[in-house]
Specification:
Elements (H helix, E strand, L loop, with lengths): L1 E5 L3 E8 L11 E9 L1 H11 L3 E5 L1 E3 L2 H12 L8 E3 L4 E8 L2 E7 L8 H11 L4 E5 L4 H14 L3 E4 L8 H6 L2 E2 L3 H7 L5 H7 L5 E3 L5 E3 L1
Parallel strand pairs: 1-4, 1-9, 2-7, 5-6, 9-10, 10-11
Antiparallel strand pairs: 2-3, 7-8, 12-13
Helix pairs in contact: 3-4
Amino acid sequence: MKIAVIGSINIDFTVTADRIPSKGETVPGKGTEIFFGGKGANQAVAMALLGADVEMYGAVGRDENGVKAMENLKSFGVDTSFIKRSEKETGLAVITLGEKDNTIVVIKGANGDVDIPYAESISERLKDCQMAVLQHEIPMETVEYIVNFCEKAGFPTFLNPAPAMPLPMSVIEKVTYLTPNEHELRIIFPNMTMEETLKKYPRKVIVTLGAKGAAYC
């Protein structure tokens, strides 16, 4: 199955300390680690590991982080031929870990260039795929454009609505599969219970429940 992932590509820079510093405070760190991230890139790698034929659509900078992110995706068999090279820096998440908690600062960078002109440039290519997979770390207008395009072209879309934010009703109605967690569900459907939402959108909304699995109607 050929799947198109349209989404974010990041580098995650993680710092570990005994505790997270208060405002204006300096604390000693225990070490740093660099991981490859971005919700879109993570989706692409996960599906490639499951055996799918995956094409990644997104943007990275012309910096060293962009080169490394592309190489990482290729190492898992993800097709990176259509990733845009931006003049902006590659997306970056700076994560501080301490006391079983974390703080995260995200720099969108090149992910902001996954815009409507880029979406228009790849739209015909998407017709060769069996599904388009999206998330919220690219501009919302791009998510809307892709969902609308795929609905008219007659092939399915899968949206993981994270990070959580309100969704236009047009996207909810036209997307094939929507997979919020419980927190995201409350933001997208603030006036309905989980059961009410699942009954209203059978075979569409799948609520992920962590260790408890998922809820689906």
